[in-house]
Design a protein that fits this description.
Length: 246
Amino acid sequence: MAIKTRTIEYHHDDTLLEGLMAWDDAAGAPRPGVLVAPVWAGRNAQADHKAEALAALGYVGFALDMYGKGVLGSSIDENARLMQPFVDDRTLLQGRMQRALDVMRAEDEVDDARTAAIGFCFGGMCVLDLARSGAEIGGVVSFHGLLKAPQNAPGTAIKAKVLALHGHDDPLAPPQDVLALQQELTAAGADWQVHVYGHAMHAFTNPAANDRDFGTVYQPDADRRSWRSMEDFLTEVLGGEVPGPA
């Protein structure tokens, strides 16, 4: 197995974006592609590492860019400022996600008929909104995502299968938001699953998260269990045989 990466520049409207694609160079045929939507800081090393981890599982991972090439937040205030325009304009958010999906599908290494998306925190909201927009994608996985529904999608049928992986003690998306998501997905006709982890807060997959007052704390059991659930989900929704590591 030889995991290769390359950066890909692309545009959405007037914004220059840069994603990172990771794949196993030993693969002899196109493989299913999986978008990685990053946390609210932007496309960082964490997102790139998740793309590489997906490549190690036999997929093509594509860490997408929401904010612009080289744009990264370095504090809670900066991250919130970068994220807020997309919270306010979910049509913009959904369009940027669709553009990333189109870019990934166009790459030679990707089987464009078999695609999925995963996202973390803000990225969890991004992949849920991609599904909410009615996008043609096999499935989406939200890890400790922001769950509140947009105002521009009521009545839109959700074609993607949905898996939400969530911490019960997440103060940024409390249990009533989880219940509301379940009701929303049911009304939209989605094939959905929600896994809730006890004693887990926001950002439970991030080993650097250690701010209990803010509600972001790493939880290794939830991290491990959620990744395994994602693996099973991707095997189901992407269908067909995915070659293992060489």
